[in-house]
Fold these 3 entries.
Entry 1:
Amino acid sequence: MNEPQIFCPRCAWRPQGEDRWQCSPRMGGCGTVWNTFWTAGVCPGCSYRWQITFCPSCRQFSPHEDWYHWPEGSVEERERELELGRN
Ligand SMILES: [Zn+2]
Ligand SMILES: [Zn+2]
């Protein structure tokens, strides 16, 4: 099993299934409300991929990727894959 732990990289707040985010109209979004971790940050309304995710606990934005904390070891594997992909 290589399931990542999902929590805020700043304050370690853990999103629950009932938590919701909005595709913010103020930031050019469509207003859809959904759980962004079900879709890896992709809005189901307009298919926009959010690179940043708001934390309702510390009220800061963090890169969506940074919310995923992989078990020890698998991070190295992922980085190696990225290295290979670059060459
Ligand atoms: Zn949207
Ligand atoms: Zn936070």
Entry 2:
Amino acid sequence: MGVLGLTSRKFNKFFQIKYKIINRNYYTQKRLLSSNYSSQNDAILPVLIVGAGPVGLVLSALLTKLGVKCAVLERSTTFSKHPQAHFINNRSMEVFRKLDGLAEEIQRFQPPVELWRKFIYCTSLTGSTIGSVDHMQTQDFNQIVSPVSVAHFSQYKLNALLLKQLEAVGFTVRSHEGLDHRPLAEREILMGHNCISVEATGNLVNVTTSFVKEGKHIEKQIPCSFLVGADGAGSTVRNLVGIEMRGEKDIQKLVSVHFLSQELGKYLMYEKPGMLFFIFNPGAIGVLVAHDLKQGEFVLQMPFYPPQQKFEDFSSEVLFFS
Ligand SMILES: Cc1cc2nc3c(=O)[nH]c(=O)nc-3n(C[C@H](O)[C@H](O)[C@H](O)COP(=O)(O)OP(=O)(O)OC[C@H]3O[C@@H](n4cnc5c(N)ncnc54)[C@H](O)[C@@H]3O)c2cc1C
């Protein structure tokens, strides 16, 4: 996640400086963030967050709780139904504990821990088990290292709970049609808007977004005091402000197949319940993520090696019959 507020053109430097300013002059910053928007200039949002993934949504809820006015821009026109992440660590659960009952809701709605505490290594789902690892430890249940245990809950379900929380404090999800020509208001999540440029002038960050209307790309300017890049691993905001990603890129490519099978869910639930199934045999290698055995919701992840392999090699016909 990146944060940008505007006092310097040297974005990289600014990135570090701004954090220091926030820490040193907390009260000044607090006034700027909470009162500037309504009383001085209605067109300037105190905080604009790019990205309505879990990080952007959690941040919106936390800022709102602190009285900081914010809005969110999201490139996709709808929220993804791909399960993506599922394993939530202690630290994330501790943050969720601060959000009116979110940690408790996750614990209530997640599958029973007995169904996901194991990683299973096997030759195939119906074949022999090579070994299994129980990744839950006594300390996880006894609240020794953290007051909240880890959880197993699909990302799209988490996003739905976060949206419910945000709606309860006055957030609205808008398509670009819902905005017309008026500026983006606080507590709005604007869908279908791709952040394409960021410009720092004086105390403002001018964010340009692009959206599609009747087949045409239209650009819109959104000024704000602080910009937060919560736009994922390939962050556009990070690239636009010239912050390089450290470490190795493209470590591995995977093809993920999301499917529903109550039959498989029932079979695994009784035969070998687990969260991850590492499958090794000469015909196929993959990791099956059991998002919810009771619902029969799975993602099969397979290694993908372009240019030797093409994406088309993983067509639904091939996957269904293999
Ligand atoms: C298959 C899979 C399994 C995973 N499993 C786990 C797991 O078990 N546990 C775990 O902790 N993590 C897991 N992860 C990683 C986890 O999904 C990410 O860490 C998490 O999604 C990061 O959240 P985020 O909000 O930062 O970014 P994202 O979820 O990527 O959200 C970023 C949002 O920003 C939007 N966006 C991007 N660019 C722009 C732009 N230019 N303008 C406007 N909007 C933009 C995107 O559309 C997106 O909605 C998994 C990921 C995948 C793909």
Entry 3:
Amino acid sequence: MPTSSVVDKAVIYGRDDERKKLREYVVSEDVGASSNKIGVIAIVGMGGIGKTTLAKLLYNDDEVKDKFDLKAWACVS
Ligand SMILES: Nc1ncnc2c1ncn2[C@@H]1O[C@H](COP(=O)(O)OP(=O)(O)OP(=O)(O)O)[C@@H](O)[C@H]1O
Ligand SMILES: [Mg+2]
């Protein structure tokens, strides 16, 4: 199904540790905005376990928002 970046944080439980770890990757110099390289982070897991939701939480994370001037959500089937 096509997805959007919209997430209702009020109904998401846990994921604090995963979010913290992935946030470090996203804002790090290796994969972050200040690097010329394009970084890719793969979130792998069984269907429905919450991969896209975790990506949404990161996309809307305040620290991630601060790091990038421009962001875009792309959904590829
Ligand atoms: N931490 C969470 N707390 C509450 N609900 C959650 C959580 N993570 C995911 N969900 C809910 O579980 C459902 C499946 O989540 P999601 O679509 O992120 O899974 P997915 O791993 O991306 O699935 P798929 O493999 O089909 O792409 C959604 O309705 C989502 O809102
Ligand atoms: Mg998904």
